[in-house]
Design brief:
Elements (H helix, E strand, L loop, with lengths): L1 H12 L2 H26 L9 H19 L4 H19 L10 H7 L3 H15 L2 H5 L3 H5 L5 H34 L9 E5 L2 E5 L1 H12 L1 H17 L2 H23 L30 H25 L5
Antiparallel strand pairs: 1-2
């Protein structure tokens, strides 16, 4: 299996387009850093001396809103309770809201680049199988004394590794650039999470790593879909078209439907954002982390079942 993955990895990096993709991700981070630094230099510092009074006012407003409207929507109630608990924790522990721009705030904002990494990962996934048929190299691949399942699995693992590489580039480069341009925070900056009705402090660097991986789940699922379409229909254009359309519109369409129909919770895109179970509220009342993970596994298995079953039985003699 290792040699198969290395072979697929070499194929990907023989294409000039791969280096263009990586270069565009790097340029996005550098450009985003430049814009952020320019904005910092041209923005007057915000006075944070009255942060306690401001938090007290916000807490009172949130409590009034909760008493008026909280009972009408359990998700909204969860959101308000979380906001109140975190603000009260900041007051009790003398943790002023962070207004300065530093390396970790930049790394957090650089998550916008994950969408670009997702776009390129989907393109690789959509072409990694279909291109073998369009180029006529699939016969040379299948005459080896290796099962078709292993060949297809090596291709999928290569797609996953490519996506992971882009994710690591984004996080590492944004951290390095953030340190150089914005520096370290002047004081410790823990992330405040609301877990089981309590506020807990978490290491900001580890939290952001988790956020990056949680933010890439939808990319993994859509790339898996693109991989399945590529294996089933042998058409990279079809795989790219359908996958990118769903990538850019699936989440928005699902959220619009979720406000009216409870059955939307069974849609793929209603479950890809697992971060809402750690720092937010689920899109539909009654959804849980276990429910979303089970739904994602079902979709994941169905995509692979279609891809592997069709690829194993496909006749390539013609």
């Amino acid at each position: 299996m290792g040699k198969l993955i290395i072979n697929e990895w070499v194929k990907i990096f023989r294409r000039p387009g791969t280096y263009v993709m990586i270069g565009m991700v790097i340029l996005f981070i550098l450009g985003f850093a430049g814009i952020s630094k320019y904005g910092e230099l041209n923005t007057a510092p915000v006075d944070n001396a009255n942060w306690k009074e401001n938090l007290i006012t916000q807490i009172e407003n949130d409590k009034q809103t909760l008493s008026r409207n909280g009972n009408t929507n359990s998700n909204y109630q969860m959101y308000l309770e979380r906001e109140i608990a975190i603000k009260e924790y900041q007051l009790e522990n003398e943790l002023a809201p962070q207004l300065e721009v530093h390396v970790w705030s930049f790394v957090n904002n650089a998550q916008a680049a994950i969408s670009i990494a997702g776009l390129f990962t989907i393109i690789i996934a959509a072409g990694i199988v279909a291109s073998e048929f369009s180029w006529g190299t699939v016969k040379l691949l299948l005459i080896r004394p290796i099962s078709r399942s292993k060949i297809l699995l090596s291709k999928y693992l290569t797609v996953g590794l490519f996506g992971l590489l882009l994710l690591m580039i984004i996080y590492t480069l944004s951290a390095l650039v953030g340190v150089l341009l914005f520096g370290l925070p002047s004081s410790e900056v823990p992330h405040l999470a609301y877990v089981n009705g309590e506020v807990v402090e978490r290491n900001i660097a580890l939290h952001l790593i988790g956020q990056y991986f949680l933010g890439s789940i939808d990319i993994l699922m859509i790339a898996t879909m693109a991989f399945m379409i590529s294996a089933v229909f042998r058409n990279s254009s079809l795989a790219i078209g359908i996958s990118l359309f769903l990538f850019f519109t699936g989440g928005t369409a699902t959220m619009l439907l979720a406000s009216k129909f409870e059955w939307t919770k069974y849609f793929l895109f209603a479950n890809t954002n697992l971060s809402v179970y750690f720092d937010g509220v689920p899109p539909i009342e009654g959804m849980t982390l276990t429910f979303s993970i089970i739904l994602l596994l079902i979709y994941f298995l169905v995509f692979h079942l279609l891809a592997f079953s069709v690829f194993r039985k496909r006749d390539v003699s013609a």
